[in-house]
Amino acid sequence: xxxxxxELRAGGDGAAEHDAAQLGAAERNxxxxxxxxxxxxxxxxxxxxxxxxxxxxxxxxSMVDWRPVTGWLPPITDAEWRAVFGLYREIPQYREINExxxxxxxxxIFWLEYVHRLWGRLIGLAFALPFLYFLYRRLISRKMAPWxxxxxxxxxxxxxxxxxxxxxxxxxxxxxSQYRLTAHLVAAMLIYGYMLWVALSLLRxxxxxRLDPANKGLAxxxxxxxxxxxxxMTSGGFVAGLDAGLTYNTFPLMDGSLVPHGLFIGEPxxxxxxxxxxxxxxxxxxxxxxxxxxxLALWIYARRRLSAxxxxxxxxxxxxxxxxxxxxxxxxxxxxxxxxxxxTHQAGAFILLALSxxxxxxxxxxxxxxxxxxx
Length: 375
Ligand code: HEM
What we know:
Layout lengths: L4 H6 L1 H45 L21 H11 L3 H5 L6 H34 L7 H24 L10 H26 L6 E2 L4 H26 L30 H4 L1 H29 L4 H25 L4 H24 L1 E2 L10
The protein binds protoporphyrin IX containing FE.
The site of protoporphyrin IX containing FE (HEM) has 31 residues, from helix 2, helix 8, helix 10, helix 11 and helix 12.
């Protein structure tokens, strides 16, 4: 509940004290929910990094079934390990790439995928248990509940999408579809961005977030740059999904020229954007370069408009990270996608996305947490 000063005074001293106490309690409750959601955002970030490592180490197809509720225990006995390995030996990835792999070799790829899925379940628990507790303590109002429940549903759908992605690599091909991989990545971005936004709004207290009219232009510019970061990340999903980073390992030239040959060699032309390795890598470079230029232009503009403070810090960090991310992308490419660098590049992208969301948020004044019920 948000109360104006005049309302607080109008009720006389006793009423004012009561209202102030209510406001204080509402503020504390909103912050509790905000901190909880922020922890969940951190857990989603770890999930993304685990997912990246799973893909980069070729571990993603080691679990060929999905049992969302009962499948949280790994194989324990030797017979169980052999049964799971037996299932893996039936898929094309084993036959065409990993033929002759030992059980120990299989275990080493199995664990990453297992931990990735286990972490997903833990996120579900870290959401559901506090949610039920907060509901019981009446900290979540009817209006706030759908925002939170939709996060839970999105998380569950992401699990289904992850399985749909894995399925694409179990029958005819040795890896997963770049479309499904990118859809899984984009869904992760949506969940992460959405949770972060709601968390930041709650951390502002019961007033929530409202666009400050004085910062309207800057906020729009920042939102457009955030969308460009998201688009560059989406194109990165196609680079990863097609292993397009294993070719054209030079920068800025591709095959000796700034604009490589064969960009639109396939028919229809638009399909090259998603299926032609040359075009996909070229797009990612181009989008990244344009995005970083926009981030730097935004940074200069924001520094002129904003005095020192939290919002300015958000723009400073965003500019710094964008330049680092560009450099990291280039080094990852030049060194032909080493696991550690590629995983850091993916993590860097999610941090950059978070900074851009934080920057837009920092330009607002204190609507979401209006929904928080005071106790
Ligand atoms: C703002 C700048 C950039 C952003 C936000 C960004 C983001 C991303 C993302 C999200 C991925 C997908 C990672 C995954 O799913 O595993 C990716 C992959 C990749 N990016 Fe970037 N990127 C940027 C700049 C660059 C640049 C400048 C280059 C090189 C010239 C580059 C090279 C690559 C390569 C080679 C991959 C595939 C790595 C792999 O197979 O895991 N990136 N990028």
